[in-house]
Q: What sequence folds into this?
């Protein structure tokens, strides 16, 4: 900023006026980035780029939201005695960037909580149907950011959206209560999943930042919410939203997360719902935590019983009038099409004459399961079977259907279609069985959970870990029904949803638990504790299953594994990182000084005499990338250097490694590390191969340090860059 200006906001205004007299500033950012947002013509944007002091001009981007058994499933009932008796974690503040909040929910009851933490700087903004009295000692802050949305999408009206922190969608209320909801006895959805619902950090405080309006989260609003959360002094930021992975210097959310990290705030994000395909993981910046999704040990069985007596298990949250016990005619939607898209039951795609009075089998794809059911119902159908296609595998997501319906896996779908094609007069009926717990195996990686490797930096393994993300019961708004559809007039206090949107706040809340016990730990140390104590196998030693393949999962699917909050509170050793460590990574990636300044919001010059390496980043996982050798022969070697910090009593740790590719050799030096309390020790891992890559070009393994009590685990991925 030139010295003639007293404040950067005045400087920004001056720059704007030199470009256009008519345009208005939307936001001036104080923390998340050094910059502002506005609306310009393409010509004005080009002119702005040429101005002195402007590092980058980037077009607006739209993100999307990535949509009571879990505390018991995760073992949180075992660790109450670990927390300080004085506050039970109540001084930790979780900031939720989402669609707002339904403050009347019992999940935000503040009974038993002490005064609001003295370091809190936020506020409770008033607006449509929302006053300062809607906040309390639990919901300590609520703000909304709409300027970017209104410029991009048009004015917000109270018919569709509340111009306030109030949640019109339900997604934000759901995620906030997963992270930090107070305990609510008797929580359920239509009697399903009945029990006590409570958040991961049920004594933590909640601050809500409404940056999403329906299914659109405009980047300028997200950055304003992030900017405010940093200023308000939250300890954890939970963001169940995402967009396609891009380079770090053009990923504004990643840039804002860097600023949060520098203030000691851990940023937890959804990994995305575009699995099971590789290179789809989102929110991949190494200073953020990226969370994939797994199942829990509960489902909602709904059986498809065929006229020949065969029985196929599915899931459903249907609560209405059941079908008659007598068999009903059964038809495949692809054979009852009136228009294109009939097989997936798109709007107006079915022939009422062929569908009326029948159960219809619809393939997954295009529209939601509930929408397919409405298409069937409007065409006169009595019920629906929602059939997984191959990419869905055996993953079953329960939905609150508006007609009798059951979702079945790919194997069952194939058998049902075979019955439909081989039987002259096929019939079926649907039987609903409520809630069932103790399902095994669990967890299983969900098919929708986005997968690694990172397409930007494959040496940094993403996602970091997985957490519960399927059929999760949590609080809901009373402004829409559980399906979020206009035709759904039902109103509920709790809803059951699935997505990495649900797994993210689980990890956010657990990070808040760790923060409450170790308030001086850095975001990197907290993430390390969650990652190195995560489990990638069941009790019998078998790898966690992937529902897309029904085979063993890999670190591209689960990262370090499934989060284990009990173990995370006693990790033994952690991998720590500072802001400069991340900037050294950017030097290794050959970022220019201007590119680094965009991320760091300050000058940082790479040392021309220093050899920077991506493999030196002190990350709790190993992404090994073998590059082609120019000569075409000889051994290929990749070295990773790491430093461990002892956060427990003095002790000696021994290393062990496993890898599913015999042609790659792993050497760890030293192989034994002895620590005093709070001591740091470094080691080097050398990966060597002289053979051609395997047909898959990928391999996976694990590195573990153990003192006989603590196991400090890290996943390994190996790939060949062709």
A:
């Amino acid at each position: 900023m030139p010295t003639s200006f007293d404040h950067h906001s005045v400087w920004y205004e001056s720059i704007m006026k030199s470009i256009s007299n008519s345009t208005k500033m939307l936001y001036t950012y104080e923390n998340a980035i050094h910059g502002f947002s506005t609306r310009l013509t393409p010509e004005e944007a080009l002119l702005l780029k040429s101005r002195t002091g402007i590092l980058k001009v980037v077009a607006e981007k739209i993100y999307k939201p990535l949509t009571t058994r879990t505390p018991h499933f995760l073992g949180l009932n075992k660790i109450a005695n670990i927390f300080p008796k004085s506050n039970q974690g109540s001084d930790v503040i979780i900031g939720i960037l989402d669609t707002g909040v339904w403050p009347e929910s019992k999940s935000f009851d503040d009974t038993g909580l002490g005064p609001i933490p003295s370091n809190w700087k936020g506020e409770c903004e008033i607006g449509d149907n929302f006053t300062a009295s809607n906040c309390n000692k639990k919901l300590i802050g609520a703000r909304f950011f709409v300027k970017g949305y209104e410029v991009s999408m048009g004015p917000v009206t109270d018919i569709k959206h509340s111009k306030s922190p109030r949640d019109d969608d339900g997604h934000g209320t759901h995620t906030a209560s997963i992270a930090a909801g107070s305990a609510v006895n008797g929580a359920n959805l239509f009697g399903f999943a009945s029990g006590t619902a409570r958040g991961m950090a049920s004594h933590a405080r909640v601050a809500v930042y409404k940056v999403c309006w329906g299914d659109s989260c405009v980047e300028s609003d997200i950055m304003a919410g992030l900017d405010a959360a940093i200023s308000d002094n939250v300890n954890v930021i939970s963001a169940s939203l995402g967009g396609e992975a891009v380079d770090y210097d053009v990923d504004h959310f990643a840039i804002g997360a860097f600023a949060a990290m520098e203030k000691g705030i851990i940023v937890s994000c959804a990994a995305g719902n575009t699995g099971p395909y590789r290179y789809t993981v989102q929110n991949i910046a190494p200073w953020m935590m990226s969370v994939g999704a797994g199942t829990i040990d509960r489902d909602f069985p709904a059986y498809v019983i065929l006229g020949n007596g065969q029985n196929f298990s599915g899931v459903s949250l249907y609560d209405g009038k059941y079908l008659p016990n007598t068999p009903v005619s059964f038809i495949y939607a692809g054979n009852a099409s009136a228009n294109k898209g009939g097989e997936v039951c798109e709007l107006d795609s079915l022939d009422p004459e062929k569908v009326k009075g029948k159960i219809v089998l619809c393939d997954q794809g295009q529209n939601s399961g509930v929408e397919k059911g409405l298409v069937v119902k409007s065409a006169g159908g009595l019920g629906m079977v929602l059939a997984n296609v191959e990419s869905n595998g055996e993953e079953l997501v329960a939905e609150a259907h508006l007609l009798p319906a059951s979702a079945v896996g790919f194997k069952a779908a194939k058998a049902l279609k075979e019955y439909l094609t081989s039987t002259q007069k096929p019939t079926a009926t649907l039987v609903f069985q409520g809630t069932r717990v103790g399902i095994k195996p669990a967890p299983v990686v969900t098919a929708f959970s986005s997968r690694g490797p990172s397409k930007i930096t494959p040496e940094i393994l993403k996602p970091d870990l997985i957490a519960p993300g399927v059929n999760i019961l949590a609080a809901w708004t009373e402004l829409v029904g559980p399906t979020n559809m206009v035709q759904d007039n039902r109103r509920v206090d709790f809803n059951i949803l699935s997505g990495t949107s649900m797994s993210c706040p689980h990890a956010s809340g657990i990070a808040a638990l760790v923060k409450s016990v170790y308030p001086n730990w850095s975001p990197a140390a907290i993430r390390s504790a969650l990652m190195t104590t995560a489990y990638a196998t069941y009790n019998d030693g078998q790898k966690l299953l992937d529902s897309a393949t029904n085979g063993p999962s890999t670190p591209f699917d689960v990262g370090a594994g499934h989060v284990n909050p009990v173990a995370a509170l006693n990790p033994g050793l952690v991998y720590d990182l500072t802001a400069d460590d991340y900037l050294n990574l950017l030097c290794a990636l050959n970022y220019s000084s201007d590119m680094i300044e965009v991320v760091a919001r300050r000058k940082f010059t790479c040392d021309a005499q220093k050899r920077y390496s991506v493999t030196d980043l002190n990350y709790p996982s190993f992404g090994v990338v073998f590059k082609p050798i120019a000569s075409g022969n000889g051994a290929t070697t990749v070295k990773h250097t790491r430093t461990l910090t002892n956060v427990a009593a003095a002790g000696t740790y021994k290393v062990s490694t496993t890898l599913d590719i015999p042609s790659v050799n792993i050497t760890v030096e030293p192989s034994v590390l002895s620590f005093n309390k709070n001591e740091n020790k470094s080691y080097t891992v050398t990966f060597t191969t002289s053979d051609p890559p395997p047909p898959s070009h990928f391999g996976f393994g694990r590195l573990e340090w153990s003192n006989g009590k603590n196991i400090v685990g890290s996943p390994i991925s190996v790939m060949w860059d062709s």
Q: What stands out?
A: The longest strand covers residues 636-646. The mean pLDDT is 93. The chain has four domains: 1-62, 70-294+444-540+552-565, 301-434, 572-577+617-720. The domain at 70-294+444-540+552-565 is CATH 3.40.50.200 (Rossmann fold).
